[in-house]
Amino acid sequence: MKHSCKNSIGARHFQHLLVSMKFTCLNKGSGYYFPPSYILDVSGFRILLDCPLDISALTIFSPLTTQFHPQLVNESSRYSSMDMEFEIHKRQKIEQPLDRGNFIRAEPWYKTVTDLHLWDPSSIDIVLISSMTGMLGLPFLTRNKGFSAKIYATEATASLGQLMMKDLVSMHSEFVHIYGLEPNFPQWLKWEELELLPSPLKEIAFGKDGLELGGWRPLYSSEDVQVCIQKVEIVKYAEETCYNGALILKAFSSGLEIGSCNWTIDSADADIASVSSSMFASNVATEFNYHALQGKDLILYSDFSANENMEDFEHGNKYNAPTMHPSSTLNDSTVDCKNVDECLLNSEELLEERDKLAFVCSCVVDSVRAGGSVLVALVQPSISLQLLEQIPDYLESSAMRVPVYVISSIASELLAFTNVVPEWLCKQRQEKLFSCQPLFSYAQHLKEKKLHLFPSIHSTELLTNWQEPCIIFASHWSLRLGPVVHLLQRWHGDRNSLLVLEVLRCLSCLSSQWR
Amino acid sequence: MAIECLVLGAGQEVGKSCVIVSINGKRIMFDCGMHMGYDDQRRYPDFSLISQSGDFDAALSCVIITHFHLDHVGALPYFTEVCGYNGPVYMTYPTKALAPLMLEDFRKVMVDRRGEEETFTADNIMQCMKKVIPLDLKQTVLVDSDLLIRAYYAGHVLGAAMFYAKVGDSAMVYTGDYNMTPDRHLGAAQIDRLQLDLLITESTYATTIRDSKYAREREFLKAVHKCVADGGKVLIPTFALGRAQELCILLDDYWEHMNLKVPIYFSAGLTIQANMYYKMLIKWTSEKIKETYATHNAFEFKNVRNFERSLINAPGPCVLFATPGMISGGFSLEVFKHWAPSEKNLITLPGYCVAGTIGHKLMSGKPTKVDLDKDIQIDVRCQIHQLSFSPHTDAKGIMDLVKFLSPKNVILVHGEKPKMGTLKEKIQSELKIPCYVPANGDTVCIPSTLFVRAQASETFIRSCTNPNFRFLSSSCEDESMSPVENPNPISRLRVSDERVSEGILVMEKSKKARVIHQDNLLLELGQKRQELQFAYCFPVHVDRSEETLKEVPFTALDVLGPSHKRHLIQLVCTKLSDQFSEVDLLNHGEHLQVESFSACICSKNNCHHRVFDGSRESSVSLFFCCTWSAADEKLAWEIISAMKKYTLSIN
């Protein structure tokens, strides 16, 4: 419709397919945290692929400080130093750096896929979820009265997605707890207020053409999440699901994350495969299933966001900033498969990821050696999990005894979950099952008290265990919500401390002041 | 094409399950078990029946193992490493993880304790497991381009699965061992409603119907509690996996609940290690255990410790889990020797013991002495409690599954011959499904299915959507509702809409089969409509007056003038309209017509349709020739029989 989505069609019966199938792009996606979503009309059925939330849009809001430094709230000069330097890499030049006054101080709202609201929810027959981030916007859809579509997701994606939603709701309610409740229609959504925003923030709020303002919603409740999850039909990889006797739906591993998948839709008219953001090989998730795409009439490659990243690199624009402070960033490792032929590259992809993880670990060790603390706020669980495995080993080999904390309302659930899902993991980890070792080595770190899990920053166990310097894994990666905000505030002035983030397409949060 | 089913093991017996099924050119081996009751070559299935030459790779498409019990997987290392099968082997993730433990345990018992020559080595087991491709439930796997397999939850032990296999249009299910009622650590068997040519099901409890499990569990706990309260020792011989974990959850809970401090031991490091697997594979357990894994993993037993050999004769009560399950040797036998002579002690026996094992001897009657071998005899004075909650389905469960799947044929394996016979009769008489009980070495052949895809024409589809309502009035007396709740059963009108569609299947050579509506048939075939017409010429008695006799010569009745004919027709018409008031009678002068029936006076001498009955003289009769089409046959005959009785008069 409005956006032109790049999709390559490799079809035998091209003409025929065009008649029987309709493809409408709702959003073209921008990386792992915000996968593309689109609507397919096949054989008289309407299928929605993914229903994400553009969580990066949270950046237009100002983070809240906690009560334990009340004086900071009033001292804008000191406070401003913690604001992220904010970069939008589009064609226009970067304006003067934003300061804290520019951000909206209000209870955050969440930006849904705007174009989805143009569709009648009751007209959707099927929702297919390809990854955990692809279902974060689902409660907005399922709470609609007329909504009656069947939602399919893999078992692991549904579990992870539920955890992420739960975490989001809990972080948000913490925010509201501190900030207080807002009226139904907040002040900031008024036109006069929005007009005053600096242009990069305005673009996030309105979208390029000013139409995206309608996508903003207040967050769903935990009841909404419950209802939503109950409506999800869970499947295994390669399980055949027959919809209405007419479509056969199958999920195949995409290699990106535990449980993430590519869908195939077989109908009387055509066999279609929809390829989401994928990785050929992974150190965590089940390998990309290439065979599933064979013999299809049509393959939809929908996610080219990572490629755009690469182009940006080549053009040498402001996006290169991370390379100037390389130690503070972990490059987004979700490299898409552009072409099935690139399958040969898979070992390289894996090596690249390994190198990056090793690099991050060594940076962590450097920071700790210099007496600083490390804060890790990543989007992708599989990357965090690998760092959780590796960092304690790196510390040990450097003979440093520094505690590693995971602070999240879902920390223990997430780690328990990852140790009981051998079917959804890569070959090497499945071998661990067969030789009776824990699937992730942090089980051992937990036992040896190198790694500690805490549900929140206020928990008494954390306060009694607290030791600095330390390494903390905390959410949320937008740096607007959750325990990470408080920790950032504590350490932003410390030259030796380190913040580890993933580079995202439309936002790179780093700050030279902070280092 | 036919489906051929060769039974190599578990035919009319329990032990060494192994069934080879040939289905549309593919050959699958289901299970590769060993028999615990034999020490000679009868222990393994007779693999030579699969291939004389021993080229098993060519003879088999794949091997499928349903679960990790030795009578289902015990011969696998022998088959792959010694016999040299190199093709794919499929099992679920838990089975792949746990089977090597069972095999290694067995190998050790065989070699270390019994001093037998081993038929496969530890290295063989490892190499064998490398060939195994793990599966998840419901994952649809294409073994090759034609053979599709899929696993369903069977609930027998952790990771036990029923397997669905499909080649072309022929499909079958091999159940392995399964349980239709959920137990403490596993869910109930689950399967889709599939179209099957063949169902091969176990029939361990072919005639037993069991009551609630909870009563039996309470009984077990009471027996154990009483024994330890009196200072006795409890020996629970089990296999390392499955039962041990289930009973342990039961005891651990009970100990926690009753605040008991009596130690619970696991005999070898083996079972503790097995608990590790159970923890990782918790998603394969029952719903209840799955739900709580994040807060407390149910296989993290609080009261369980490792057992040392020195503790056998230590004073004080204890509970001990020891392998192997049927006291066929190993550690459980060693402990049994020490503990059996004291009446304070308790030994629990599993629900099923293979003939020849000590367990079997203890089960049959109440022996006071058991012969270990020629020289050693043990006094048995201890109490014996038989556990009857074996994770096999009972007869009702088997019938339920067969009924649910409604396959075209059923084969029973893994049971005792007389009981299987009873079940076979029941399946054939109650469900009307052919059922077979082959012995080892027998082959059963059943026809396979071939589907032809037929295209339905538009008119046919439209005709299918025509409703076919039937109205029934019935009083709504729900069986579940008691009369108190529902004092006045209300009579309600029930509408049923069972649609019956009639169509014609057209199959021509080198053309796709089609289903069309009858109206389209002629057009499709390019033929003209042909109608079936009946014709009948019969005499009607005529009474002549004198005058007419003069006018018309007697013999020339057949050349009556038109006016006479009209007159006669009119006469018949009037008579008929008196008799058949409901029908639409038309007088066309020369002939009369009712629907498609028409009758006229026949003037031919030798009408083809004339039938003489000889009852009346032809001289005084007039012939009427009638025709009608098939639809009005009944009416036509009614009119004819009426007309035959008339006497017409020509004045």
Structure description:
The complex is a heterodimer of chains A (515) and B (651). Chain A has helices spanning 14-20, 70-74, 76-80, 138-142, 155-179, 191-195, 199-206, 222-230, 305-315, 321-324, 346-369, 381-397, 411-418, 427-434, 442-447, 460-465, 483-491; strands at residues 21-27, 37-42, 45-49, 53-54, 110-112, 126-128, 150-154, 216-217, 232-235, 241-243, 247-253, 261-266, 271-275, 298-301, 329-330, 374-376, 404-407, 451-454, 471-474, 498-502. Chain A contains 17 helices and 20 strands. In chain A, the strands form four sheets. In chain A, strands 1-2-3-6-7-9 form a six-stranded mixed β-sheet. Chain A has a six-stranded parallel β-sheet with strand order 15-20-16-19-17-18, with helices on both faces. Chain A has a five-stranded mixed β-sheet with strand order 10-11-12-13-14, with no helix packed on it. Chain A is 31% helix and 16% strand. The two termini of chain A are 44 Å apart. Chain B is an alpha/beta fold and 651 residues long. Chain B is 28% helix and 25% strand. Chain B is built from 18 helices and 33 strands. In chain B, the strands form seven sheets. A seven-stranded mixed β-sheet of chain B has the order 6-5-4-3-2-1-22. Chain B has a seven-stranded mixed β-sheet with strand order 7-8-9-10-11-20-21, with helices on one face. In chain B, strands 14-13-15-12-16-19 form a six-stranded parallel β-sheet, sandwiched between helices. Classes of the chains: A alpha/beta (515), B alpha/beta (651). The A-B interface holds A 235-240, 250, 412-413, 416-417, 419-423, 430, 433-434, 436, 438-439 and B 93, 96-97, 100, 129, 134, 136-141, 150, 273, 276-277, 279-283, 293-294, 297.
